[in-house]
What we know:
The protein is an all-alpha fold. The protein is built from four helices and no strands. The longest helix is centred in the middle third of the chain and has 26 residues, at 36-61. It is globular.
Amino acid sequence: xxxxxxxxxxxxxxxxxxxxxxxxxxxxxxxxxxxxxxxxxxxxxxxxxxxxxxxxxxxxxxxxxxxxxxxxxxxxxxxxxxxxxxxxxxxxxxxxxxxxxxxxxxxxxxxxxxxxxxxxxxxxxxxxxxxxxxxxxx
Length: 138
């Protein structure tokens, strides 16, 4: 059994914080500040970008229990493919997580999943000392 340093706990807590922040953005939405085309874009695409980011970091927080998702590429793929599958179901008339098909949603899911991967690999790994966790020495 591999034991991890305290960085694992910090990383998990930070990941859950990201998920909670995105949930708060949905609860305390900015829609009252938007009008016209901006409001339509917000309703149409905000969640399509943010939910894959949240799901990526939820997988990040669960990776000790789900060894399949330890690699960032797998997390990006899952966070794109699951909502894309739901969107495809909507296209064929199966209302899964919604009922309105919009081909631009695929692009938004890709943007969200890619943004999460970039945050993980390029930003957090460089700025947060606890982000890259190494196994503890026995």
